[in-house]
Amino acid sequence: MAGRIFNSAIFLSLIVISFGCEYPAVPPPGIDYTGEIDTIVDIDGNKYKTVGIGTQIWMAQNLKVTRLNDGTEIPEAAGNEEWRTPRTPKYCWYNNDSVSHQRYYGPLYNFYAVNTGLLCPVGWHVPGKSEWTTLAKYLGGYGKASGKLKDYNGNFWMGPNNCIENNFGFAALPGGVRHDFNGVFYQIGTNGYWWTASNKDEFRAYIVSMQNESMMLNENESRQGDGYSVRCVKDQ
């Protein structure tokens, strides 16, 4: 009987770890637990909460801007062919639905918008690959990082939303992707993707991603014409 009780306890523990988030009793050291160090405003008037994690200060929300910080309009590309060509800065809303996705997810941008260096508000920038690595290392490595960054207060991530000692205030959301080749949208609710500012070559650049069923922060490369979310980090 004792053996059965012990095994049942292990089984229940695994369920908790696999299908839920553990809430910390005390905020981790060095973290602004409220998720609000200051508030920034972009050129379109959108306001953002920010969060300090380690030595970095990040936006606690996805970028929502539709203009570069010098006032230049970023073309919105709704149609599939319009999204595919030419190789110029563009943004779109998931499923071309700004009503449902503007408030929380923000637009999906291609890398050509990122590569202008003017997408984030002045004093902020799209983080390079090494800056995401710095964040991941502070959180215990790539194998745990998304488990500490994914939002768990809302109902954005489809279950199971695997995570651990949240909340660091980053509130990463599963904004999905738009493909370059055919303009198709998919994976909202299960996958979140963010551009880095680091290009791989003339046609590809690096991204980071999270999945609902995993606690791993993934680093991959993607075609520069694909559409992903953007987070900004404060200049140092």
Describe the SSE topology.
Layout: H1 2-19, E1 39-41, E2 47-53, E3 56-59, H2 80-84, E4 91-92, H3 98-101, E5 108-109, H4 111-114, E6 124-125, H5 129-138, H6 142-145, E7 177-178, E8 185-186, E9 191-199, E10 204-211, E11 218-223, E12 233-234
Question: Nutshell version of this structure?
Answer:
This protein has 236 residues and is of the alpha+beta class. Helix content is 19%, strand content 21%.
Reading side by side through the largest sheet, how are the strands ordered? 1-2-3
SSE sequence, one letter per element: HEEEHEHEHEHHEEEEEE
How many distinct beta strands? Answer: 12
Number of domains: 1
Can you offer a commentary on this structure?
The chain is of the alpha+beta class. Helix content is 19%, strand content 21%. It has one domain (2-234). It contains six helices and twelve strands. Strands 1-2-3 form a three-stranded antiparallel sheet, with no helix packed on it. Strands 9-10-11 form a three-stranded antiparallel sheet, with no helix packed on it. The termini are far apart. The model is unreliable at 1-19 and 22-34 (pLDDT under 50).
